[in-house]
Amino acid sequence: MDVSQPAYILHSRPYRETSVIATLLTPEHGKLNAVIKGARSKGKRSTSKGAVLQPFQKLLVEWREKPNSTSDLVSLRGFEADTLRFPLEAESSFCGLYLNEILYRLLYNGVAVDSLFEQYEQALFSLLRSQNRSEQAWVLRQFEFQLLEAMGLNLNCETDVNHQPIQSGVNYLFYPEMGAYPVNGEETGGNGVPISGECLLLLSNLEFCENCLPSWKRLLRHVLSLYLGSKPILSRQLFR
Fold it and tell me: Residue 187: phi, psi to the nearest 5?
């Protein structure tokens, strides 16, 4: 069966003499590994085909799905650039590469991600319009939250571990395995992340608050680290 999908490149690497293996993000087939022939010349430079294979460039790709195949690798029959492209620069580009990296490392192959595909596209658009680091950080925090939801790892930011509504004036320790635990004063414990009730409620509704950005970063980075493992995020080093 012939398949046609919009796609973005998350990662690519050389393959044989003139090909590349690209990891694509598609809405209906999720993360997908594809062989793209003729993307490099024998001198290892990009060909006219390869020049299209850039991050943040929307593609239209086609392949033939083989029945009963156990391989997660397909061979593209064709691809072309869509009119939509996000020419991210400087730190916005680093942010976009970070999104690509966590998608590449956290998504399972072949699982549909229709909503997340749209959210990724919206995140790129927001990064293109961002004017400062706070706006860039907010784009990343929203997408991290949405990615966790897409993975079935919803953060309960509305009720605490006692099934009581989160209160904006209360401080909490958020445990990824349990949820929000109300605390008094400077109480700390285990792998709980300190965060205010106000910041939890705003995150749940995806409402921007500059003062909450550091708390959201600590919380979401901690939760993601449980699934990313010990291998460092390479794109974070670009900010240094």
Answer: -55, 135
The 193-196 sheet, strands edge to edge: 179-183, 171-175, 193-196
pTM attached to this predicted model: 0.90
Pairing of strands 73-85, 30-36: parallel
Least confident window among 142-151, 179-188, 206-215: 179-188
- Taking residue 181's Cβ as centre, other Cβ atoms within 10 Å add up to 17
3-state helix, strand, coil in the chain (%, to 5): 35, 30, 35
Query: pLDDT of 184-206, one tens digit each?
Result: 766 666 789 999 999 999 999 99
- Residue 40, token pair as written in the block: 């490099």
Read off φ and ψ for residue 168, nearest 5 degrees: -65, -30
